[in-house]
Amino acid sequence: MMVAHKPCNTHCFSAWSTTELMEMPDSDKALANPRQRIDEIDGQILDLLAERSKVVVNIIEKKVAQQLPIFAPEREQEKSSAFKKMAAEKGIDPEWAEDFLRMIMASSRGIQSRQKFPIATSQPKQILFIGGEGSMGRLYSRIARQTGHHTYSIDKSNWYELEALAPRLDMVIVTVPINVTEQVVGRLTGRLNNKTILADFTSNKSAPIKAMLEAHEGPVIGLHPMHGPDVENLSKQLMVVCPGRATEQADWFVDQCRLWGMRVINAEQQQHDHVMNMVQGLRHYVALLHGSFMQHYALKPAEILEYSSPIYRAELMMNGRIFAQSAELYADIVFADEQRRKLLIQFFEHHQKLAELVKNNDREGFIREFEGVTDFFGKFATQALHESGYLINRLADRFT
User: Fold this and answer.
1) With 0-12 CB in 10 A as exposed, 13-18 as middle and 19+ as buried, what is 371?
2) Which of 154, 198, 261, 367 is the most exposed place for a label (fewest CB within 10 A)?
């Protein structure tokens, strides 16, 4: 079936003049019309995406009015499956089509960062962020305000405002660096209404929760947003919730996180800290080890990239991301508590054991160790191969 071409409009990026066509090499002349048609189609795609964005805004307004979550995983999965099926029927790679759709949906969620969010309560809550001028405090304060809650910020310069604010506060969230969290919590002793919820955002939970329980007689909850402050919105981000005292009093905040599109998991503080010792403490120390070794041997990242495979480029990017941020922040994470430091010492000892394999040229020992880890990883190794392959291919396509 022939498809009639629409005349070139404002989205036609290249309309070739007679003079331009005469000056073209013969090889380019044969491509001029198809390329012009591609430019027209690209313009039409942008028109459709702009129209789609307007519909998204309308949907967001309805979600806010009906207090529905911004992120609906079931709907997104159904949409992706249907889209892939349609793509296959049209002769388009379904995996590529899913990538394209998910980028569009991510952009749609980005639109939410400029809109109002649905609220979880019948009346706005009064929320104080201690350390509210920090990056995480600013992020959550902004989103809470866009939701309709009333937010306040206290830092070193205006601590005196706490006395006037305290009687009307529904929730106080401590968002200061790890190394001063317990000290700041201690300053709250006896100063909050017993109905006020006291929470923290630190990445280790046992010590802060203990400090909050000692400083405050009311509800206490430990919160750990598992993301950085550079996100535009909270959709698809993870919030870990650890119980303290009368945690159910904070159910409205947990519901609010879900309405913001977040995933929420509940965890006991000891289990949380045990996992974080590996996820954060050890991982960040290994990044320092890698970067420090490169510096010692003058292995400059820009030069390494010229010879790197996509997988090493991905690893280098993740390490480089860490060194683009605050050294004090990562020092606080690595040296968060004694348990985390003990894990690092155990890591050094285990590292020495593996180093002996290299010193002794023990190839067979290396293979045994490698295969033992393969068995330990089990099915996850296959999953990791698939997921990392996706990331590597996209990284290579975008930046190589």
Assistant:
1) exposed
2) 367
